[in-house]
Write a structure and sequence with these properties.
Elements (H helix, E strand, L loop, with lengths): L1 H17 L11 E10 L5 E10 L4 H4 L2
Antiparallel strand pairs: 1-2
Bound molecules: zinc ion.
Length: about 60
Amino acid sequence: MAKQQAFAEKVKKGTEEKGSRCPKCNTIRVPILYVQSVRSAHQSYRFSSQRVQVCKCNEKEIYA
Ligand SMILES: [Zn+2]
């Protein structure tokens, strides 16, 4: 019984450490690779990707 509880706490702790929690919306930020198509000066498109942390504050912009 005691061992099970210790395991549960360990798992919980691991989950908390995985992402940082946004103080505004209280949601764990999820790191994703955000890819945008960017028009270059020569009328061609290239892709720009960046890692962003997604929480409820910006998920609408990211997934739009
Ligand atoms: Zn947020």
